[in-house]
Amino acid sequence: MKKYVFLFLCIGLAFGSCNKNDDSPVIEETREEEQVQPTNAVADFPAQNFMWQAMNAFYFWQDDVADLADDRFDSEESYANFLAGEEDPEAFFYQICNDHIRLVGEENAVDRFSGAVENYKDLVNNLQGVSRSNGVEFQLYLFRDSDDIYGVVTYIANDSDASSKDIRRGDIFTGVNGQTLNRNNYIDLLFGEDDSYTLVMASVENGTITENGKEVALTKVVNFAENPILLSKVIEQEGIKIGYLMYTGFLAAYDEQLNTVFGNFKSEGITELILDFRYNGGGRVSSAVQIASAIYGTNTNDLFIKARYNSKIQSGLTAAQVETNFTDTTIDGTPLNSLNLQRVHIITTEATASASELVINGLAPYVDVVQIGETTSGKNEFSITFVDDVENSFFYDEDREANINPNNQWGIQPLLGRNENADGFSDFTSGLVPRFELSEDIVNLGTLGDPSEPLLALALSKITGASAKFDLTPTMVAPTFVSSYQFKGNNNLSLMDGLIKIDLDKKEENSVR
């Protein structure tokens, strides 16, 4: 920050003359130069100002953060000085979050999921499933007693660059561009700026992961739109028709296609459904409402979820403003294809989060939800996108992009509240626990949608009552170090776009601008 030095001189202007007698001896008085702090202006820190205003109004834990208190500042000057205290907007954002994971670590974190990006358009694109991607999704693991890493491909996005290459689910890799992957380089090598890279492939031989001489060259496509409906099919076993849907993210752009999938299930006469959410990190709540209604029924008088905001917002809301019922149409108004099931089987892993967990929790009071696999992530909060559009209370609206402050393109995705189900339950921070537990086998992932794939085979056995035809016990299980889904913009999100019913016109102005 620049510091300005002002010299206090004897000047005969508004303060009058110094009245020095020219005949008197001149006595030179030496004064120390005083350093005066410049006056900070709120307008000089547009990103920080926007972030504070939005967080003060809407942040779920606003009551618990001293710097977000309504009476935190006694003047605009003190507010401006606070904004000036951190020149980096990203650092400022996490500073005003409540024990954010980036600052205090996972074990001590209260807020694990709020985020900020320098260009709101990147955030908006990611939330629509549009990103720079080659289509390979994977999980990374640490070698025992080592900082070296190996990766296992979990699925290949349809119509991606990788879908035309010799790489598939279950393949293992240990390096990129000839370099061995480790803790220090995996981000740069796999998630860096280079659009192209070559994976060094490996195989498991006698229980040991060994490079096999194969390489796969991949190229990331700019603005690649991943269809979250990875696979849908009907499986018939023991005379029972069972629908299977592998769904990787709640994206509104594919809601109509999702409705068609359920229409096909209905026309096929399925009586059981398996939802595969094992790699689904969440997305738009409106899509979660649709898929839950397609399972349970279009009973628009039945409560699906009830939102809980911070005390400042919650105290002024009516029941109609916090409640979301099941729906009978898509968000575009198309009549919904519903199966009216009394039971659903849902496959989950630790990567299952947010809107996926919302479907499980929201359906629980109405249908028998049989959860199979691993305990979920435990993301029980919802969020929304904010941009510097004061007149719209900072809510992002694609039709108002011209109203966003041209001097501040930051976008933030803070946690606004929690959604509870019709029974009032929302306390699953530690995750939702499966009724039947089974982890994926690193060396035997199987083929998604194939009845012999272990997690699907377990679900089918619980539906038909017949024992699995082979041993499902995994031979190689390890804790995931990190996964590619964690780098997706829509991961760990319950995005309440279109479902927040706060009356923006009646919101009080904040005391400091």
TrEMBL record:
<protein>
    <submittedName>
        <fullName>S41 family peptidase</fullName>
    </submittedName>
</protein>
<feature type="domain" description="Peptidase S41 N-terminal">
    <location>
        <begin position="48"/>
        <end position="114"/>
    </location>
</feature>
<dbReference type="InterPro" id="IPR029045">
    <property type="entry name" value="ClpP/crotonase-like_dom_sf"/>
</dbReference>
<dbReference type="InterPro" id="IPR041613">
    <property type="entry name" value="Pept_S41_N"/>
</dbReference>
<feature type="domain" description="Tail specific protease">
    <location>
        <begin position="241"/>
        <end position="384"/>
    </location>
</feature>
<dbReference type="Pfam" id="PF18294">
    <property type="entry name" value="Pept_S41_N"/>
</dbReference>
<dbReference type="InterPro" id="IPR036034">
    <property type="entry name" value="PDZ_sf"/>
</dbReference>
<dbReference type="InterPro" id="IPR005151">
    <property type="entry name" value="Tail-specific_protease"/>
</dbReference>
<dbReference type="Pfam" id="PF03572">
    <property type="entry name" value="Peptidase_S41"/>
</dbReference>
